[in-house]
Structure formats: C-alpha cells, structure tokens
Amino acid sequence: MYNAEISRQNPGCLLFLVDQSGSMARRIAGGEQQKKQAVADAINRLIYNTVLRCAKEDGVRPYFDIGVFGYGIEGQVQSAFDVDLLSVSDIANRPKRTETRQRRLTDTEGEVHKEEFELPVWFEPVAEGKTVMNAAFERAVATVSHWISRHSLSFPPVIIHITDGGYTDKNPAQTVEKLRQLSTADGNVLVFNCHISEKQESPVIFPNSSQAAGFNKRMRELYQMSSALPKPILGQAHAKGYSVEEGARGYAFNADLVTLIDFLDIGTRVVQDRIEGQLQDRLGDRTE
Amino acid sequence: MTEEQHLPIFWQIWTAPKDGHRHDQNEDAGRAEIVRSEEGKDGLLVAIADGATEAVYSRLWARTLVEAAQFDWTVLTDDELNQRVQQVREKFSPLEPGKEMPWYVRNKFLTQGSQATLMVLTLQGSTAANCLDMRAVAVGDCCLLVFKKNGEIYGFPMCKSEDFGTNPMLIRSHHQATLPYERSQTQVQVGDVLLICSDAIGKWALNCVEEGQQGLLFQTVVQLLKPVVPHDVMVAPLPIERVSASEKEEETTGHSVDMGNEEPFPAVMRLLRSLGLGAPKTQPDKSKIADCSEEKLNSKQSAAHNENLSENAPRRLPPESIADSLSNFERFVITYRSPEKKPRMRNDDSTLIVCLPVSSARQSEQQVLDIIANHKAAAQHPSQVIQLTSALEH
Q1: Where in A12-111 does DSSP place strands (E)?
Q2: Under a CB-based contact definition with an 8 Å cutoff, are residues A267 and A192 in contact?
Q3: How far is the C-alpha of A10 from the C-alpha of A12, rounded, in Å?
Q4: Cβ within 8 Å, pair A283-B175
Q5: Is the CB of residue B214 less than 8 Å from the CB of residue B383?
Q6: Chain A interface includes B107 (CB < 8 A)
C-alpha cells in the first residue's frame, strides 16, 4: 500500500483545492502577506519544485499530473489550467507569467553570489466570492475518478485542500467520503485539509483522535474529512520535527505560513520521493 | 627484489539503459584501457560512474569523470584527489553561454548541479610472483567483486546486498566539501575474476552470491562472452558512447570494434597485450576512451568503424549471426528486471565490466572460459562476501 513507484507509465496525481473566497484577503498568521498571496506563493513554489524534480536536460519527465482548482468567484470552481489535470511536462512550459526574484548561488569554488531569476507563476492569488467547498470536492470526485480509470496501478491521487473558513454551500462530508473511497491498486485516495488562519494561536498539525476530541465543530468536520497518514508520510512528518502518532490524520488547523509550507511539502513529498530511480529506499529492497 | 610480473589481462564492458529509456539516456559511463603510469609502468585503468537520476546533465557528468580519471587517482590522498576532481569541476560547463535553454534546465543546473558515483580501479604488475596489484578508490555505490581462485569472494565498498538502499555519496559538479573516498587494494592472480558494476548489477550479483546462485552469475558471464562470430566480420559493438564535452548532445551509438582477421573469439579482442609489451599510451586517447578499442585496427575495417561512428550516420546493423551478441546484455538485464525473477534486478541503467588476468596470450579464449567455468562450478551454497580493505595481501 502506498508503495507504487512513480514512472512515466504510472504517473502520480496531485490536486490542490484552494479557497478563493473574500476572507482570503486577510493577513495570514505568522506573516505579512494576505492569505491568498501566501497560498498562491506556496502552490507556485511547490509546482516549481516539482518541475525541477522531474527535469532533465532533454525535457521534463511526465511523472505527475497536477491540478489546481480555485473556488469562490461567482460560486464557481475554476482550474488554474485550461484542463482539470495537466502533466508536469506541459506545466513547465505554460506559466501564466514570471516574477523577478533573487536567489543565492554557490560557484565551484564555494563563493556565494546573488542572482536575479524569473520565477514562473501558474496560480494567481484571488479573494472574492463564497466558500463553495462542496462544489470543489464534487469537481475533484469527477476529475480523480476519470484519472484513476486511466491509471489504476498508480500511487493513489493526493488531494490537498486549503481553506480559511467554513463552507457556504452544502456540507461536503459525504462528497469527501466518496472521494476517499476512490482507489487505485496501491491504495485509497488521500485527502488532506489545511485550515489557514489569521489568528496568532498555536497551529495544530496532524492530530490523532484523542487530540481531536477537544476540537470545535468546524475543526472536527475538517478533521473527519481528512485521511489517516500512511506510514511514509508519518516518517516525513517526523523527519520535519513534528510529533505525530499512529492514527494521525492529514489535517492542520490555525496553520500559519510555516505550517502551510510544511503541510504541502509533507503531503506531496511522499509521492515525489517515489519517482523511479529516486527512491530513498531502492524499490528492489521493498519487493524482495 | 623480484622483478615485476607481466600478465595479459582480459576485459569486457557492457552497458544498457533502464527499461523505457533510450541508449542516449543511459547515465552510466565506463572505461578500461592500458595506460602508462608516471613511473613508466603499464597498467590497466578502469573507471565506472553512475549519474544521479534526479540531476541534470548526469550522463555528461558521469562520462566527464570517467574520462578524467587518471592512473594515480588510486594512490592519491583525499585532499589530492579532491584537487583533481575540483579541476574537473572547473572545466565542466554544459550550459553554453548565450544559448537558449528551458528555464528549468538552467535553474536546476545552477542550483543543484550534476551528480554521480565513481569508482576508479587500477591493475599493475606486482613484485609478488604471478600477481597483479589492484587498487581502487570509490565514492558511492559502484561495486567491485573479486572472486578469488581459492573460492573467497571480496566486495568493495559493499559486501552485502542490503548495503545498497540508502542514498549513496555522490560527486557533485558544484562546489563540494572534501569527500571521504573509500579505498581498497589486493593482489590478483590468474584464476581470479573481477566484476566492476554500477549499483543495479552490483546488488544483483551480491544477491546471487548470498542465495547460493554464483553459478547463475557466472553462467550469465559465459553467455555474454561466448557468442562465436565469423572472424572477418565486425562484431559486438560496445554500447558505450564516446566521451567528449563537445559532443554532449550529439552522441553516437554503435561502435564496432575490429577484432582483426585472426581472432575467432570476439571477446579475446578485449585481451590486450601483456602489460609491459606493445605501445600503450602515456595519456589516454580520448577519441577511443569509451569503446575500449586500443588494439590496432585493420585499416579497412577501421574506416568502416569510423563511418559507423560518425555523427548522424545510420547505425550499421550487424549480421544476423551476431545480433544475439549485441543484445545479449540487454536481454539479460531485461530478463532479471522482471518481477518473477529471483534474484530480481532493479530497473536502472546497468553497466558491467569483467576483468581477469590470464597466464598467456596463447589460447587465451579458452583460458578465460575455463576460469569463468571454475567459478561457475564453485559455491552452490550461499556465500559470504568479505569486505575488501586497504591492506595489500601478500
């Protein structure tokens, strides 16, 4: 389970559902940015890193199909791309625009230099409309069902949902359950929920059931809509210094900027690390 | 003091890309040739590198390292070796100034560089009777297995299949703190066999030994070596492309090697003149590094050989009688990558170098097969591989 190697024949699937309702214009906890900008930056950075991960000098290997659905404007769910899921090899060549940023590079002699570079942008920050969360998950069910029908042997899709508030349409619990029941031969679809906040309170990340007992209604709803963390993700979370226990779910509450970035990284790295030839543990060890 | 002994050495290199990849996407590199050391002694230099899958320009970096390896690398200190590697880094510049390239290639190379594992091994005449001194230095998980005539098996730097499986150390093309190189040395005699491999085959070979299937391992070597070929036909191209930084995107494959008119056993053409005889080069001939074709080429076949290797020339298909020998190695790795096979080989670029001394150049083909057959017959039960250390055996 959650063991499949990512290859061109059996790519992985990463789908992001992003709340773009009006409240996302407020500032994120732990940062100066608006929540919409922090989320857009985090997703663009993740896509950038995924492209680099898959890049070779002769092109980007099609190891992942990626989707980003924003929901809110006029009560609609809109894809950041002109299709629901786009191969990373196509994403690499289709940024909406670029932004000039600075980075530090070390040369062969160890000297550090600053350099300007163009950072691609695929997902724009938007904050307008209602929190049509159920509509977003319904779109995800259709998209992921179709993808699984073509990739039944792949590592199961990972869906990461980022929101700052409660739903304004129907309770998405049933739709999410339908989504989590979808599966490939390697396991069920994983749904992780990240609630970002502007409050300066301690974030809660990857709680187990006993920790969830003290949650309020909204927290408990999102917690129950979150998949249990498979073992590889538990390992990733530990590696990042998070104290997580067996039974912990892919859920974060009151996430600040750092937690958001870690959540995205932990939630997706388990798939990225399964790229053929890049496994932390060689595949041969697991099958013998 | 006993004079140095000279023993002819046989070697052969095979390589194949991982399933689903083209030959020009194979990120392994290998090289074996006779060189003359600074002391004026002839020796065999073997270098093998495995480019990191996740990096860019890994293939070129692996080949650059293999091409740059020199005979004295196995005796340098860590600091000296790092200086040599640093010189290689400073000359490595796959990004051509002013040339348009995708942002992701440029960004990935500038921030991460290229990476590869590397092993360099030398064989040289020894003062001990009927021996060659072998020295090796390595970074990462390219693997050496030494099958001794007496049945002992040595491994370097890995001696158990479970030693593979963690991220190996890699030599980076970017700035890197001093690397702790691993070293070994031993003496090799007629009857011993050396296998030098990239990690997928190295792990598979160790699995064979651990599971008492050494016979399978050497039966495979026999089948790779054995195809009998009409002696006037170009044979057994080595699927190792030429290494040159200027040819980075213009690689050719298909490189027939002239076996000459007198040698019916194609693999014997890998048998070079005895160390100390002939005219080995002081500097490796870069035009011939990767195809191990230092032997004199028959002029007619040499022209055909060069034609076959020229950029954009269609690859000449071999006669049907040697088609098997061309694809034997690929067939072997493809077979053992199958999930049903035990032991199973990981799907990865795979390179194998077989190397062994023989007692004379006469009837050498039979000697090679006899030595391999002896190892095939030995140890049908699980064996332990001894870690090869830096202490020279006497």
Answers
A1: 12-19, 55-56, 59-60, 64-71, 77-79, 86-87, 97-106
A2: yes
A3: 7
A4: no
A5: yes
A6: yes
Residue among A55, A280, A284 minimizing CB distance to B56: A55
Token pair of A3, please?
A: 């063991």
Amino acid of residue B119: M
- Selecting from B102, B105, B344 the residue whose C-beta is nearest the C-beta of A287 gives B344
What is the distance between the alpha carbons of residues A46 and B173, in angstroms, rounded to a whole number?
Answer: 25
Q: Which of B346, B348, B350 to mutate to test the interface with A (most CBs of A within 10 A)?
A: B346
Which tokens hold the place of A227? 């998949």
Least CA distance to A119: which residue of chain B? B103
Cα–Cα distance for residue pair A72/A78, rounded to 1 Å: 9
The verdict on ipTM greater than 0.85 is yes
pLDDT value of position B391: 54
**pLDDT tens digits for range A99-134:** 888 887 777 677 788 888 888 999 999 999 999 999
**Residue B249 CB-density burial (10 A; 0-12 exposed, 13-18 middle, 19+ buried):** exposed
Secondary structure of chain B: what % helix, strand, coil (to 5)? 30, 20, 45
Mean pLDDT by 10 residues, chain A (288 residues): 88 96 89 89 93 93 96 92 96 93 77 84 93 96 98 96 91 96 96 88 88 88 94 86 88 86 85 71 30
Residues in chain B: 394
Average confidence score pLDDT of chain B: 75
